[in-house]
Recover the amino acids of this structure.
């Protein structure tokens, strides 16, 4: 029976608006979707434009079904799967584009726009940086504007006016959003297991070291982690950030020896301590880098017997943890025979030259410490060169490196050094990690990048324990003292991509990084831990999710009430303010007639004084004052009364 | 279904204040404005829920931020929808009478009591829906229709003023029952026989196109039909002359109840209505005699209205 007057249709200008909205919300995704599928999406969008331009019919159910099947097949071929994050994303965007083609009703249009909000959120799975966030929130504004335009069907699109309304809505929503953001009960860990992503370019230290691994890392400008010291800052040459310890060698690659890297749960006796907080970028492994040598670690992790800190769960999100470290090696008296043998492990029949060389060397230096020092001296005296572009090495990598090429970087030196130590029957192992870091004055923290990746050696000295030996320092002390860039003087091929410490942009760059650090720490890093700390500060100690929810409801309700009250009394407020302004004009007129109103004087007292001083003004002043009082204290002051007041004041001439 | 139960409940709640017809104009205020999420609102909520679930799962703080922002926008839009109806002033007036069977039309004159503009204001009853924007200091006029089944006065009845501005996710509405009525003329009888005075030759006046004989001119008198004025002479003489036609005898042009009295009452009324329309269309002078009322000879719009009104309101019960 109902007789709708405005049958819904989308005309050309609203089609263009819908396309524009879709374009902006999916723009960052277009690089993540295979080009073939992007072309498909563009084709669908153009089709929609043509449909609107020439008022054609939208495709029927069979055509749509076949298009869906074709799209799914194309997605499957482009991704070789239909599940997983990337394939799911392609599916979402293509189905939205298809939806765009078949839009007929208002319901279709609004569903399409709501799903655009969803597309915005999926963008955040890839990046939550400041700039991307700013962009995407602008897109949210645009989508909201389009929803208003669509909802105002029948009337022409007045984009600017709609933009203002949606801007007002969003501005008013921000306080509520902040309250929800802060108080919404957070849980750590996912509700269901994250599907493995195809494109997670993992950069970071891994559990093995093949030739070239570290040099690849060194070329990456990505931030590994940031460190803020709460104690004195250790010198650059002592800032070794410990990563995986590699104790098994197969002739080519070093790997973690699981037998040696067991979990230990006890804390070491403390010596001189550095205490600091690390904000780790997601490294998709369990490694938590720590300053050498860690003595206490967060509860969410443990320390292995090789003094490496591991988290119990893979670090998929930015993660913050507190540590303390000793600058002295941890002393141990003995190394049980079985373990000693594992630290002396070497593959058979590799590097014959080095074996001979070391046995001669050993005869000259029977003492372990003097052997180590003399080997380092050997590196120093024999023109070894530190370079990121070393020649390729063959099967006997140590032999070739020691006696032929003599060019390499930390991983070559660590590798050669540890192999030769083991040949000399001194237990030794490779330690990978980071060295150095750039100080950010603004935020008082260090940035450690993947380019600070490093590898060094540890040797066991009887009655002393494990000692850190960095053969790279013997060859290129600059690498350790001043960072990776200063040490590369033979070829500057990589300095462009490296984080430059002496460019004139450093100041701006450090400022920007400080901002990003704050963003990461306080906005993106806001989770269960920070929430509990903050609630504790507010007096909600050990707040459970129930009390969080109640607090949330109370504050949201209160804010809503305030906004509603504002709208309820907005007109009255305005009128009262207006009448106040008019009355002030009246007072100013009198004050220029040498009858200023005293600050403590009420309007009634004032008018009595005026009448006493100037009898001729009595009638007018009395009328104005009475009217003013009436407006101020009336429930619903009327506009007419205010006009009357304004009129009297205007013609009031003292 | 659960949602329809809620809808019914909210509707009954919002109808509660309507005890009887209200005096006009009706000004909407917070006591009578009700707000509920619309169907689109549920859809919006569903999408938000999915977004929230995703944000929790991926522990994505910007996802949380967008979700919470949109939820807040949704909540804030409640206030905007309410403000969009608040202080609307509505006055309903009847439009021209309609014949029974045609819908009766009412005009709604909508203006705002405060200085803000109101958008997408719909007036909805069971039978029709109309939408308008209301600008500050201006009055918008929209039409709302009610079907008619009987002659006489018809009440506009209850209808809703509603809006889903700005986002369409909540709908604010208020039920109105203004004291407005519209006259409904009786439906003219289809295929009615001609009145007695037309003679037997014109068996059916519905397809009678008998041309009356021209008799001569006389001086114009107020009330003469413009169709019969001899316009060609006017520029030359500056006097208006009216053409005179002969069409039976004047005393016979009574449309008399007695000639239809043997019919059932409604059919009798319908036949007289048809005769009135015929006479009025043919520019004849005619009078109407009802058992309780007599309308003298006349012509023109207001005469026609008087006759039709008398027929519309004729109630033989009141005569006894």
């Amino acid at each position: 029976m109902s007789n709708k007057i405005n049958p819904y249709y989308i005309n050309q200008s609203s089609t263009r608006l819908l396309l524009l909205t879709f374009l902006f919300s999916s723009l960052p995704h277009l690089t993540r979707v295979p080009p073939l599928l992007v072309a498909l999406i563009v084709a669908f969008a153009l089709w929609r434009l043509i449909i609107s331009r020439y008022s054609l019919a939208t495709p029927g159910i069979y055509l749509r079904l076949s298009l869906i099947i074709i799209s799914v097949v194309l997605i499957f071929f482009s991704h070789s799967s239909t599940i997983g994050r990337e394939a799911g994303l392609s599916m979402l965007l293509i189905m939205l584009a298809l939806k765009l083609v078949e839009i007929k009703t208002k319901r279709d249009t609004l569903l399409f726009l709501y799903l655009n909000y969803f597309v915005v959120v999926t963008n955040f799975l890839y990046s939550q940086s400041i700039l991307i966030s700013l962009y995407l929130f602008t897109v949210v504004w645009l989508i909201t504007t389009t929803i208003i335009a669509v909802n105002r069907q029948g009337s022409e699109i007045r984009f600017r006016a709609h933009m203002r309304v949606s801007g007002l809505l969003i501005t008013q929503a921000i306080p509520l959003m902040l309250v929800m953001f802060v108080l919404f009960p957070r849980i750590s860990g996912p509700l269901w297991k994250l599907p493995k992503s195809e494109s997670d370019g993992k950069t970071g230290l891994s559990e093995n070291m093949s030739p070239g691994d570290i040099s690849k890392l060194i070329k990456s400008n990505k931030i590994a982690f940031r460190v803020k010291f709460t104690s004195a800052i250790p010198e650059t040459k002592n800032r070794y950030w410990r990563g995986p310890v590699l104790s098994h060698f197969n002739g080519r690659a070093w790997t973690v020896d699981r037998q040696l890297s067991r979990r230990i749960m006890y804390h070491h006796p403390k010596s001189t301590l550095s205490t600091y907080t690390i904000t780790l970028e997601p490294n998709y492994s369990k490694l938590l880098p720590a300053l050498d040598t860690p003595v206490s670690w967060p509860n969410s992790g443990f320390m292995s017997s090789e003094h490496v800190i591991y988290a119990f769960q893979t670090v998929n999100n930015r993660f913050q943890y507190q540590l303390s470290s000793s600058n002295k090696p941890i002393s141990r008296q003995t190394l049980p025979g079985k373990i000693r043998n594992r630290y002396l492990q070497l593959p058979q029949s590799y590097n014959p030259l080095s074996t001979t060389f070391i046995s001669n060397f050993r005869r000259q230096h029977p003492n372990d410490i003097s052997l180590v020092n003399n080997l380092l001296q050997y590196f120093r005296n024999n023109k070894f060169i530190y370079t990121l572009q070393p020649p390729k090495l063959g099967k006997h990598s140590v032999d070739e490196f020691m006696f032929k090429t003599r060019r390499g970087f930390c991983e070559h030196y660590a590798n050669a050094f540890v192999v030769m130590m083991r040949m000399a029957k001194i237990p030794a192992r490779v330690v990978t990690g980071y060295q150095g870091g750039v100080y950010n004055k603004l935020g008082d923290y260090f940035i450690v990048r993947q380019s600070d990746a490093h590898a060094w050696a540890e040797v066991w000295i009887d009655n002393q324990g494990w000692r850190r030996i960095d053969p790279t320092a013997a060859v290129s002390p600059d690498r350790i003292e001043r960072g990776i860039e200063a040490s590369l003087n033979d070829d500057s091929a990589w300095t462009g991509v490296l984080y430059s410490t002496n460019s004139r942009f450093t100041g701006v760059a450090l400022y920007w990084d400080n901002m990003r650090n704050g963003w990461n720490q306080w906005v993106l890093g806001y989770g269960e831990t920070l929430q509990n700390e903050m609630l504790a500060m507010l007096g909600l100690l050990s707040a459970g999710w129930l009390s969080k929810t109640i607090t949330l409801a109370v504050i949201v309700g209160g804010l809503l009430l305030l906004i509603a009250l504002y709208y309820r009394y907005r007109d009255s407020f305005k009128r009262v303010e207006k009448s106040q302004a008019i009355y002030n004009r009246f007072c100013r007129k009198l004050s220029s007639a040498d009858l200023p109103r005293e600050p403590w004087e009420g309007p009634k007292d004032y008018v009595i004084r005026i009448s006493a001083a100037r009898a001729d003004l009595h009638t007018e002043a009395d009328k104005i004052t009475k009217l003013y009082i009436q407006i101020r204290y009336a429930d619903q002051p009327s506009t007419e009364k205010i006009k009357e007041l304004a009129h009297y004041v205007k013609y009031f001439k003292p | 279904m659960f949602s329809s139960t809620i809808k019914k409940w909210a509707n009954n709640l919002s109808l509660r204040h309507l005890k009887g017809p209200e005096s006009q104009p009706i000004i909407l205020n917070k006591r009578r404005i009700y707000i509920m999420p619309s169907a689109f609102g549920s859809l919006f909520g569903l999408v938000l829920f999915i977004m929230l679930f995703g944000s929790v799962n991926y522990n994505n703080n910007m996802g949380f931020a967008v979700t919470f922002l949109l939820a807040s926008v949704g909540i804030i839009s409640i206030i905007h929808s309410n403000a969009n109806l608040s202080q609307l002033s509505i006055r309903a007036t009847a439009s021209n009478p309609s014949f029974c069977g045609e819908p009766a039309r009412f005009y709604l004159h909508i203006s705002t009591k405060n200085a803000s503009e109101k958008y997408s204001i719909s007036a909805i009853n069971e039978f029709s829906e109309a939408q308008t924007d209301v600008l500050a200091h201006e009055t918008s006029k929209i039409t709302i229709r009610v079907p008619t089944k009987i002659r006489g006065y018809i009440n506009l009845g209850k209808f809703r003023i509603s809006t889903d501005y700005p986002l369409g996710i909540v709908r604010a509405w208020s039920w109105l029952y203004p004291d407005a009525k519209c006259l409904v003329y009786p439906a003219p009888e289809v295929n009615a026989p001609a009145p007695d005075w037309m003679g037997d030759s014109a068996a059916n006046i519905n397809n009678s196109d008998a041309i009356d004989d021209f008799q001569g001119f006389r001086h114009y008198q107020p009330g003469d039909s413009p169709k019969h004025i001899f316009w060609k002479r006017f520029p030359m003489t500056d006097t208006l002359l009216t053409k005179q036609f002969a069409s039976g005898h004047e005393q016979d042009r009574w449309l008399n109840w007695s000639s239809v009295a043997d019919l059932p009452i409604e059919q009798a009324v319908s036949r007289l209505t048809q005769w009135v329309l015929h006479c009025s269309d043919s520019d004849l002078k005619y009078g109407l005699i009802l058992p309780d009322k007599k309308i003298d000879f006349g012509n023109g719009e207001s005469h026609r209205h008087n006759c039709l009104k008398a027929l519309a309101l004729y109630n033989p019960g009141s005569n006894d």
About this structure: Residues 332 and 518 of chain A are 41 Å apart (CA to CA). The longest strand of chain A covers residues 453-461.
